């Protein structure tokens, strides 16, 4: 049995990182941090005592006769990618819900790959694990996703991630005084605005509009440099970080008309009126988590103003995806598995 723990992430600033079609041509950068909200995956080879070949448990439960019949796209792709056709039992639980802009899907893929490699008694370093997750999501599943989520999940920590046009990815830990990082955390508040019912439509619209938004994406890229300078230079006022978030949100919501809506705009304006200096929606649009930068003395006023929304406490996390439990189990002879199928087929 193997249990993995993989962090979710909060992205502060980024330009050209959402879709490979952009950053492979123009490059891109993102400033983001892993947080202490995680997804946990338990996996083991399934003993040959059950009427199903594999069992996959997440928001639904799948009992399948072959791994090719697994409906969960990431599970099916990861097993195929690693050439694992034996029966598996995989369980997934997470601290926060999926499809809310915190990189949960990629954290799942990263954590699952790490667990499956451990089942095979194989190790993967952070770079290899991130690259493999990117390959699964972009090449095998053909999803319109970037690469920042996989990197953040694999590496952990507060990083600047640069995507080069030659396909290479550079990950640099933000080097700042721990007190400075702690002060930044004390200025951040995360609120759940609700689920977006049109996330896929928003993503498709943003993908369609991306080639026409070079100026806006370039401006967002420049904000990464400015934000990094603010965090790492103790002479800079940290409030400027909040004002940059405000500028970033104005640019992001202009990318397509579907990113925001009247409800999201009302939440954001209410946050500013309560004392927040800036913020951004972390989801694809229409819902998800809203991050605010608010002076600590105004934090309670912000929570009172947005008391109808769930405020989620969080901290930065330096640890990336890792194995929590590794307990190799007895491997049953494959002939027993074959015999099992024959017996169950007779009674089907």
Written overview of the protein:
- By secondary structure, this protein is α+β, with helices and mostly antiparallel strands.
- 41% of the residues lie in helices and 24% in strands.
- It is built from twelve helices and twelve strands.
- Strands 1, 2, 3, 4, 5, 6, 7 and 12 form an eight-stranded mixed beta sheet that branches. A four-stranded antiparallel beta sheet has the order 9-10-8-11.
- Helix 3 crosses helix 4 (126-140).
Short description:
The chain is α+β, with helices and mostly antiparallel strands and 348 residues long. The chain contains 12 helices and 12 strands.
Looking at this protein, list some descriptive labels.
single chain, 348 residues, alpha+beta, 8-stranded mixed sheet, 12 helices, elongated
Describe the largest sheet: 8 strands, mixed
Query: How would you state the average pLDDT, rounded?
Result: 88
Gross morphology is elongated
Rg, alpha carbons? 22 Å
* Low-confidence region ranges: none
What proportion of the residues form beta strands (DSSP E)?
15-25%
Q: Terminal Cα separation, in Å?
A: 30 Å
Please count the beta strands (DSSP E, at least 2 residues each).
12
**What order do the SSEs take from the amino end to the carboxyl end, as H and E?**
EHEEEHEHHHEEHEHHHHEEHEEH
């Amino acid at each position: 049995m193997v249990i993995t723990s993989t962090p979710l992430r909060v992205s502060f600033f980024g330009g050209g990182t959402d879709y490979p079609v952009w950053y492979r041509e123009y490059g891109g950068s993102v400033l983001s941090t892993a947080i202490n909200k995680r997804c946990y995956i338990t996996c083991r080879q399934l003993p040959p005592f059950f009427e199903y070949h594999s069992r996959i448990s997440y928001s639904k439960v799948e009992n399948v006769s072959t791994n090719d019949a697994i409906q969960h796209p990431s599970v099916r792709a990861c097993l195929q990618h690693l050439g694992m056709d034996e029966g598996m039992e995989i369980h997934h639980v997470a601290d926060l819900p999926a499809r809310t802009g915190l990189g949960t899907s990629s954290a799942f893929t990263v954590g699952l790959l790490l667990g499956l490699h451990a089942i095979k008694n194989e190790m993967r370093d952070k770079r290899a694990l991130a690259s493999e997750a990117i390959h699964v999501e972009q090449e095998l599943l053909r999803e319109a996703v970037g690469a920042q989520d996989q990197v953040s999940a694999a590496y952990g920590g507060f990083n600047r991630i640069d995507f080069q046009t030659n396909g290479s990815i550079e990950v640099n830990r933000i080097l700042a005084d721990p007190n400075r990082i702690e002060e930044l955390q004390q200025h951040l508040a995360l609120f759940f605005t609700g689920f977006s019912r049109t996330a896929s439509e928003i993503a498709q619209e943003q993908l369609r509009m991306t080639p026409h938004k070079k100026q806006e994406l370039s401006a967002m890229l420049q904000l990464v440099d400015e934000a990094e300078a603010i965090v790492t230079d103790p002479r800079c006022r940290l409030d400027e970080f909040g004002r940059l978030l405000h500028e970033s949100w104005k640019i992001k919501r202009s990318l397509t008309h579907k990113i925001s809506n009247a409800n999201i705009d009302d939440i954001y304006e209410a946050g500013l009126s309560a004392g927040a200096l800036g913020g951004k929606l972390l989801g694809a649009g229409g819902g998800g988590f809203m991050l605010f930068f608010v002076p600590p003395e105004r934090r309670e006023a912000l929570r009172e103003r947005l008391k109808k929304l769930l405020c989620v406490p969080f901290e930065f996390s330096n640890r990336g995806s890792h194995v929590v439990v590794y307990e190799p189990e007895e491997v049953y002879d494959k002939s027993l598995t074959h015999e099992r199928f024959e017996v169950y087929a007779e009674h089907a």
